[in-house]
């Protein structure tokens, strides 16, 4: 097995999520976004999340995206890797379930690494590729932990990305506190 290659293809497979296409026509923006949530019976962890909370998180992602267009793809998942809500641009070919699992795994590994070296609690992980940047953030809510992933172009300011993702994380915490 090649240690630098995942044992599965992230871009293949049929997503089992329900999707709704949202078209933002304000200010000439004709970009389509797919808002996705998992079916409530797909997982015990997600099924314990109230449907009202999932709907509120979807609305927050839509609203936040309109004001913060630099974040193109946003995913909120549980700490054990199940999607809660996402906002994905049309044509963004990722398998939401696999990316949700990878997001929680990456945050878990980075948290374990920081604990091992005695450098405190992990908050965010930043990745950069040739053409994009991805920020992963832990969102502590009551006695649960949520994970946030946001993708942006490489041309954006790293400081702006961190600030916007922290602002979205704070909004998610505020929403969750109303329903949990």
Largest sheet: 7 strands, antiparallel
Give the terminus-to-terminus CA distance.
43 Å
| Strand portion | 25-35%
Radius of gyration: 16 Å
H/E element order: EEHHEEHEEEH
Stretches with pLDDT under 50, minimum 5 residues:
1-30, 36-43
Find the count of extended strands (DSSP E, 2+ residues): 7
Percent of residues in helices comes to: 25-40%
- Given helix and strand content, the structural type is alpha+beta
How are strands sequenced across the largest beta sheet? 1-2-4-3-7-6-5
- Whole-number mean pLDDT: 77
Principal-axes geometry comes out as globular
Describe this structure in words.
- The protein has 180 residues and is α+β, with helices and mostly antiparallel strands.
- 36% of the residues lie in helices and 28% in strands.
- The protein is built from four helices and seven strands.
- The chain has helices at residues 44-47, 51-67, 96-116, 158-179; strands at 18-23, 32-37, 73-78, 83-89, 124-128, 132-141, 144-153.
- A seven-stranded antiparallel sheet has the order 1-2-4-3-7-6-5, with helices on both faces.
- Helix 2 (51-67) packs antiparallel against helix 4 (158-179).
- Mean pLDDT is 77; it is low at 1-30 and 36-43.
Secondary-structure blueprint of this entry?
Elements: E1 18-23, E2 32-37, H1 44-47, H2 51-67, E3 73-78, E4 83-89, H3 96-116, E5 124-128, E6 132-141, E7 144-153, H4 158-179
Antiparallel strand pairs: 1-2, 2-4, 3-4, 3-7, 5-6, 6-7
Helix pairs in contact: 2-4
């Amino acid at each position: 097995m090649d240690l630098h290659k995942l044992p599965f293809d992230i871009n293949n497979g049929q997503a089992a999520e329900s999707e709704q296409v949202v078209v933002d026509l304000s200010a000439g923006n004709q970009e389509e976004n797919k808002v996705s949530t998992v079916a409530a019976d797909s997982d015990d962890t997600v099924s314990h999340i109230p449907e009202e909370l999932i709907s509120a998180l979807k609305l927050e992602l839509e609203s936040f995206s309109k004001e913060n267009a630099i974040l193109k793809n946003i995913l909120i998942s549980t700490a054990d890797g199940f999607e809660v809500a996402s906002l994905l641009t049309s044509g963004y070919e990722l398998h939401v379930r696999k990316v949700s699992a990878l997001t929680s795994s990456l945050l878990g590994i980075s948290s374990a690494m920081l604990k091992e070296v005695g450098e405190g609690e992990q908050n965010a992980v930043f990745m950069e590729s040739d053409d994009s940047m991805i920020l992963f953030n832990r969102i502590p809510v009551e006695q649960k932990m949520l994970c946030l992933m946001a993708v942006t172009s490489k041309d954006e300011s790293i400081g702006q990305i961190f600030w916007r993702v922290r602002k979205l994380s704070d909004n998610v915490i505020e929403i969750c506190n109303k329903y949990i």
